Known about the structure:
Elements: E1 2-3, E2 9-10, H1 13-17, H2 22-47, H3 52-59, H4 63-71, H5 78-87
Antiparallel strand pairs: 1-2
Helix pairs in contact: 3-4, 3-5
Amino acid sequence: MKTRKNNIKTYTAEQVFRNKTKEFKRGYDEESARIALAKRIREEREKKKLTQVAVAQKAAMPQSVIARLESGEHAVSVETLTRVATALGKRVQLV
């Protein structure tokens, strides 16, 4: 732990996770993956210069679903993810 100006303390990832349970670590990994996926979807949409509305129309779903997906704050079904991936000219692949 380091203390900076204004008494703000910073911690390394090792310090943060040292005493956490396996369930916490798994949840953290799942949340990180969801956020990374949301970021990737938004990047692909923007790279293709598409609006959320355009992707939603191609995926036959409301624009609000695309917005929620890109926020990374909500779980997404495989069906929804597949439809959005197809609308972006991609496919879902597990690695």
